[in-house]
Write a structure and sequence with these properties.
Elements: H1 2-16, H2 21-24, E1 32-36, E2 42-47, E3 53-60, H3 75-82, H4 93-99, E4 103-108, E5 113-120, H5 124-137, H6 142-159, H7 163-175, H8 189-194, H9 199-209, E6 215-221, H10 225-236, E7 258-264, E8 271-277, H11 286-299, H12 304-312, E9 316-320, E10 331-338, H13 344-360, H14 365-381, H15 386-400, H16 405-415, H17 418-428, E11 434-441, H18 442-445
Length: about 450
């Protein structure tokens, strides 16, 4: 049934691709134009059938990864908030976006801060003017900075009610010694509490990372490409260069397995996570792409361990294991919410046994074929709207600075063999690179 569905999806998609692209063997079904300014700013103009709608995504290649200075974590996330404060030219950003009927938001992760607007096509010039202005001319007082930093502390405190936050925080802190992936996007708690005193540092952070060489625009939807290029050149060309790369320390090789426990103050079922040191994202490194395939084959929703623990025995309430990669080497993580705490040792052993098996055995050819097809068609089916198209391309931009690598990635994916998956397991799912963290309610862990 799964093969049949994949085939049907493929036939449907081939029928809607722009003429010529399917025959050329390309995965990305839309034509695009790169506008490259002399100051280093890149804009990708992606024309799609969108009935008078556009999506405007500005990608800042700066997230928690760039927070390399001691005591200064959390500032990438701070700018996600303060960027909506306005400028001298446009002091009320919210009023303008509301007037033109635009939906807008932002988010931050380990590798990126992104800002997006979805609006009618006839608002294009207003949006280009508005966005270029706030990226070039954002200004905020120390009083405004302190107010926003206080709001972020409140957000941080609210997040403490989420057991998964506690678990992820402990996992990254335990697994990493030097690299900035040691802390989450929100930052270390002590740094967030001290943030109101960091006004001058915040200006420095913005001056280094919010520069045209470090930002990429994805404009998708229904618009005139020549007009869009003219507007981008007009409004973004005055932006001055000035990007300063972060001084990120590479993580030294892990030499022995690590374990930690977390006592959560609220009520929760036990949560177990087992993670291994993985590779950085790459479009052409077969081991890196094979590692993503490995996560699905070994621990995904069609894997033996998933079916056994979740579907057949209900030993776990949830189970996830798809390996997503980052700009730098991060963790390949398997996580389970466990029904009964007494089963924690058994489930941990099952995860480790699965890793050992994939290191020594070839995966099932049918499972491999279905996994590669699913990864391809999930990408294609995610291209339904201009905003979805931009999001589908975002991680490629974050890792490479452009969208061109999308074709290389899916060519590499198609070439992955069972031997490649085994080689990835042998390289990355090693005991010496493993970190295990268990979270339980404080009352349960004190029994």
């Amino acid at each position: 049934m799964r093969i049949f569905l994949s085939t049907m999806v493929g036939m449907i998609l081939l029928n809607v691709l722009p003429v010529g692209l399917a025959a050329e063997g390309k995965i990305f079904p839309f034509d695009y134009q790169l506008v490259q300014l002399e100051n280093g700013f890149k804009a990708y103009l992606i024309r799609t059938p969108a009935n008078g709608q556009i999506s405007y995504l500005t990608i800042v290649r700066a997230g928690a990864r760039e927070e390399w200075e001691a005591g200064r974590s959390g500032y990438a996330h701070f700018f996600e908030h303060i960027m909506f404060r306005g400028t001298e030219k446009y002091p009320n950003y919210d009023a303008i976006t509301t007037r033109i009927g635009a939906a807008r938001n932002a988010s931050t992760s380990l590798d990126v801060t992104q800002y997006y607007i979805t609006a009618a096509s006839d608002s294009l010039e207003q949006i280009v003017d508005l966005e270029s202005d706030r990226f070039m001319n954002l200004k905020y007082s120390e009083a405004a900075f302190r107010t926003e930093a206080g709001a972020i502390l409140g957000e941080f405190s609210q997040g403490r009610a989420n057991p998964y936050l506690y678990l992820a925080e402990k996992l990254q802190d335990t697994a990493f010694d030097e690299h900035t992936y040691k802390h989450l996007t929100m930052g270390f708690e002590k740094d967030v509490r001290n943030m109101p005193e960091g006004y001058d540092y915040s200006i420095s952070f913005r001056d280094r990372y919010y520069r045209p060489e470090n930002c990429v625009l994805l404009l998708s939807g229904d618009f005139d490409r020549a007009r869009a290029e003219q507007l981008i050149r007009k409004y973004y060309s005055p932006w001055k260069r000035g990007y300063v790369p972060p001084q990120i320390k590479p993580e030294p090789p892990q030499k022995a397995p690590r374990e930690a426990t977390v006592a959560f103050l609220g009520r929760t079922l036990p949560i177990l996570t087992v993670a291994w040191k993985g590779p950085a994202w790459s479009a052409t490194d077969k081991l890196a792409v094979a590692a993503e395939v490995l996560g699905r084959v070994a621990f995904g929703s069609n894997s033996d361990i998933y079916k056994r623990l979740l579907v057949q025995t209900q030993k776990v309430q949830s189970f996830s294991g798809a390996f997503s990669l980052n700009r730098d080497p991060n963790l390949l993580t398997v996580m389970a919410m466990v029904t009964d705490e007494h089963d924690l040792p058994m489930i941990k052993d099952e995860m480790e046994k699965t890793a050992r098996r994939l290191r020594s055995e070839l995966c099932d050819p049918r499972s491999l074929s279905e996994t590669k097809s699913a990864m391809k068609y999930e990408f294609l089916m995610g291209l339904e709207t201009p905003l979805a198209i931009n999001f589908a391309l975002r991680d490629i931009v974050v890792s490479t600075g452009g969208i061109e690598a999308v074709e290389d990635y899916y060519r590499t994916l198609e070439s992955i063999t069972a031997q490649d998956v085994k080689a990835a397991a042998a390289k990355f799912l090693m005991d010496t690179g493993r970190t295990t963290v268990t979270l339980q309610s404080a009352k349960e862990s004190n029994r």
